[in-house]
Design goal:
CATH topology of the largest domain: hpI Integrase, Chain A
Shape: elongated
CATH superfamily of the largest domain: Intergrase catalytic core
Number of helices: 14
CATH architecture of the largest domain: Orthogonal Bundle
Radius of gyration: 26 Å
Number of strands: 11
Distance between the termini: 63 Å
Helix content: 40-55%
Strand order of the largest sheet: 5-6-9
Strand content: 5-15%
Structural class: mainly alpha
Order of helices and strands: EEEEHHHHHHHHEEEEEHEEHHHHH
Largest sheet: 3 strands, antiparallel
Length: 348
C-alpha cells in the first residue's frame, strides 16, 4: 500500500495506484488531519475497487508463511533463514493462531516485555515488525502496532571460557574433530568458515589460512557473513602443527576439503561437528560451552595481547564495533582501562 503524502500545510493526502500503476489521489480535493485517516481512506478505496478482497480472517501463521515466500529473491538466504527461525521459535507460540487484525500494541508489548533482555528479543521483534509491515501494505491492518524502544541494540556481556575448559573438551573429541576445532580456535574462525576450508586456501609454511568461502546449508558459498569476513588469518602454532599432521595423513591437493568426515569420506558438515562437540562437552563437564566459545576466547585474548580493538576486529572478520564488543564481551573491561587513564590525567 502506498504511503500517504504529507503536505506543506501539515495535513495528509491519500495516495493509491490505479489499475495501470499510476499514482492517484482517491479522494480529490480532500485532505486529512492525520496520517492514519489518510491510510483509512486508501484502504476504503482498495476495498471498494477490488471488491473487498482483503482477507481479514487470515491467521498470523498463515500470513507469515506467505510473507516469507514473497521475500524469496528479495532477501538473502541467511536473512530468510533467521527470520523463519525467529518466527517459528519466538512468534508462533504467542501469535500463530491469532488473526493478524487482532494483534494489538498491548498484545505485542506484553509479549515483548516477557522475553529475556537479550539481542534475540530485538531480532524476534524485528521479524514481527517485518510481517506486520507487509500486513499494513496489503491492507489487512490499518495501523502498524509498535513498541517504543524495542529496536534498540542490546550489548550482551558473554562469558569467555578459559583455555583449560576448552582443552578439556578437545581432549574428549575423536582426532579428526579435535583438529577441526583446534584450527577453528587457533584462527578465530566462524564454524561455517572452518568447515568451508579447502587445502588450496592453507599455507602451512606461513601458518596462514585464507577465508574465501563458507559452508552454508550443506553447500559451499562464496558470499560470506560480512564484507570484512574475506581475510587472511595467521593460526596459532598448535593449530598449524595439527594441520601439518593432518596433511600427512590426508595428502590430497587443490580445492579439496581440509576437514573430512571419516564415515562418509565427504566434507565435514555442521550437524556432525556439533553432535561430536555436544558429546565431548558433557564428558568434559562443561555442558554450557558452545563451539563459538573458541572464537570468542581467541579474539578476547588477541585483543588483550595487542590492546588494539581494530586489529581484533580484522582478525575476526567483524564489520562494526558493536558486533565485536558483543562477541568478545569486553565493553566494561575497556571502560576500566579508559577510566584508569582519565584518573591518571586528573591527578598529574
Amino acid at each position: 500500500m502506498e504511503q500517504p503524502r504529507k503536505l506543506t500545510s501539515g495535513r495528509w493526502q491519500a495516495r493509491v495506484k490505479d489499475a495501470n500503476g499510476r499514482r492517484i489521489n482517491p479522494t480529490p480535493g480532500v485532505t486529512y488531519k492525520t496520517k492514519r485517516e489518510a491510510q483509512e481512506a486508501q484502504i476504503a478505496w482498495h476495498e471498494e475497487t477490488e471488491g473487498g478482497t482483503v482477507d481479514t480472517s487470515i491467521t498470523f501463521a498463515e500470513y507469515a508463511e506467505v510473507v516469507i515466500r514473497a521475500r524469496e529473491g528479495e532477501a538473502s538466504e541467511g536473512t530468510l533463514t533467521n527470520e523463519e527461525r525467529y518466527i517459528r521459535k519466538w512468534l508462533m507460540p504467542t501469535f500463530g493462531s491469532m488473526r493478524v487484525v487482532d494483534i494489538r500494541h498491548t498484545t505485542i508489548k506484553i509479549w515483548f516485555n516477557g522475553l529475556p533482555r537479550t539481542s534475540a528479543r530485538r531480532s524476534a521483534y524485528m521479524a514481527l515488525s517485518m510481517v506486520m509491515e507487509h500486513a499494513l501494505q496489503d491492507g489487512i491492518i490499518r495501523v502498524k502496532p509498535r513498541v517504543k524502544g524495542a529496536t534498540a541494540f542490546v550489548t550482551e556481556v558473554k562469558r569467555v571460557f578459559t583455555a583449560e575448559e576448552i582443552w578439556n573438551v578437545l581432549d574428549e573429541l575423536p582426532e579428526f574433530a579435535r583438529v577441526f576445532y583446534l584450527v577453528q580456535w587457533g584462527g578465530a574462525l566462524r564454524i561455517s568458515e572452518a568447515l568451508g576450508l579447502d587445502w588450496d586456501a592453507v599455507d602451512l609454511e606461513r601458518g596462514v589460512v585464507e577465508v574465501r568461502q563458507q559452508l552454508y546449508k550443506g553447500k559451499i558459498k562464496t558470499d560470506l557473513k560480512t564484507k570484512r569476513a574475506r581475510r587472511q588469518v595467521r593460526l596459532t602454532d598448535d593449530a598449524v602443527e595439527a594441520l601439518r599432521a593432518l596433511r600427512k595423513a590426508q595428502p590430497s591437493i587443490g580445492a579439496t576439503p581440509v576437514f573430512v568426515n571419516p564415515s562418509t569420506g565427504q566434507r565435514l558438515m555442521h550437524g556432525r561437528a556439533y553432535d561430536l562437540w555436544s558429546m565431548a562437552r558433557e564428558k568434559a563437564g562443561v555442558p554450557d560451552i558452545v563451539p563459538q566459545a573458541l572464537r570468542r576466547n581467541d579474539l578476547d585474548g588477541y585483543r588483550r595481547a595487542t590492546g588494539d580493538m581494530v586489529k581484533a576486529m580484522a582478525r575476526g572478520g567483524h564489520s562494526d564495533y558493536r558486533s565485536a564488543l558483543a562477541y568478545q564481551g569486553v565493553e566494561l573491561d575497556l571502560d576500566v582501562t579508559a577510566l584508569s587513564a582519565m584518573k591518571k590525567r586528573r591527578t598529574s
